[in-house]
Amino acid sequence: MLTQSEENYLKAIYALSETGGEAISTNLLAEKMATKPSSVTDMVKKLSDKGFISYQKYQGCDLTVIGKKIALEIIRKHRLWEVFLVEKLNFGWEEVHEIAEQLEHIQSPKLTDHLEEYLGFPKVDPHGDPIPDKNGLFEVLNKSIPLSELNVAEKGIVIGVEDGSSDFFQFLKRYNIGLGTEIIVAEKFSFDQSVLVKVNHTEISFSSLVSNKIFIQKR
Amino acid sequence: MLTQSEENYLKAIYALSETGGEAISTNLLAEKMATKPSSVTDMVKKLSDKGFISYQKYQGCDLTVIGKKIALEIIRKHRLWEVFLVEKLNFGWEEVHEIAEQLEHIQSPKLTDHLEEYLGFPKVDPHGDPIPDKNGLFEVLNKSIPLSELNVAEKGIVIGVEDGSSDFFQFLKRYNIGLGTEIIVAEKFSFDQSVLVKVNHTEISFSSLVSNKIFIQKR
DNA sequence: AAAAATTTTTAGACAAGGCTAAATTAATCA
DNA sequence: TGATTAATTTAGCCTTGTCTAAAAATTTTT
Questions:
Q1: CA B79 to chain centroid
Q2: Exposed, middle or buried by CB within 10 Å (0-12, 13-18, 19+), for B163?
Q3: Contacts of B103 in chain A (CB under 8 A)
Q4: In this predicted model, what pLDDT tens digit does every residue of A145-199 receive, in sequence order?
Q5: Strand order in the sheet with A214-218
Q6: Less crowded by CB within 10 Å, the N or C end of chain B?
Q7: What domains sit in chain B, N to C, each tagged with a CATH number?
Q8: How far is A114 from chain B (nearest CA, A)?
Q9: Which residues of chain B have pLDDT under 50?
């Protein structure tokens, strides 16, 4: 049985290995875990001894097959609980993460499976992230694409943005657009590449500059 | 913010003070917590320093007003989750305790309140125990008594059990006894305190051990 | 390729929560 | 009441997960 801390490390390593591809450095993991590199070294040794990650001094670490399986189980629980909180308990999608961080550590496979069934075997969480099934598998279909690639009448869920400037976030906030926001393309204008979209029951026109920076998942 | 261990101690002290009335001794609490008296002394000092219990060396401890409030919040969460597990996720009433032991430590007052509303403000949990409201208040109506206190020819309805072990639940299941089951006392044997009861058209003899653990409401 | 800079690891400490063994206080019995 | 027994506390140690400071390895620079 893993401690919460061990579980959180495995989850963080999984997240980093999804984006990076290469072995995860001690410093990178320390930053992700909001802790010190020396603490990471200790934990990484322990997880390696237990067989959940591979680790060579000074060479970073990476999940083993078993470690990955466990990470996916935690992610599965996290996302199922998020669905529960939003769909059943009427939480906003922006406030569920913290609570799910706690709920993901509840140990009871039966609970997870019953919850999944109760929720109707959802494929994605309220942020649009895929939910692994019992066996740790999930659909990779949902690759994120820039909003500009969506065709008329298609819809998607905001999954991220490219530009990290606060100006841009200000702009998004102005229209109440955040992670998980649903966007439907109403019309596309080829003469200037702008798109007319429907968001939160409002129609907005986005320049191609903007529509290339907003990343969505097709629905 | 309290640790899980601190919360469990407060819960245990509350449970003991409900039955005993007097201050709770170190040994008693150690037994309840399945730990050593020396560990209890340490924890009890800490909880006293924090103002959740009153404690004088060699004199045992008792909850302060604040401590009691916290204990009731934990019990409230525990019982609400039990209702959720049984009513919504189709768990048996005998298998929810362990899972609720974990869920009761989730920190989010908003979650608790939303859950309560979602469940329709239940008054009792699946074991028949009352659920404290937001302010720590609950109805003391439905007083239940152990089956052993019933006289010959009296009947009652099962409203809860004291022992939380799965062995005991197994035993009850074997005889098809659950919440709401009607039991009639056919005979009582004073020489060993056993009772002969009629349940589901079958006669069963219960040892005093068992008849003290089954709680019923007179009918 | 040697020096400088960066990354990573080691060493030693601390707080929480538990344990064992020994000491102390309280309670009981003769 | 004094002695014995039982309950409780203290002292010291262990593990987990964290930290700081110092040492070592790796990488980058010149």
A1: 9
A2: middle
A3: 103, 106
A4: 889 988 888 888 887 777 666 677 788 888 888 877 889 999 999 899 999 999 9
A5: A145-146, A214-218, A155-161, A182-189, A194-199, A202-206
A6: N
A7: 4-63 (1.10.10.10), 145-218 (2.30.30.90)
A8: 6
A9: none
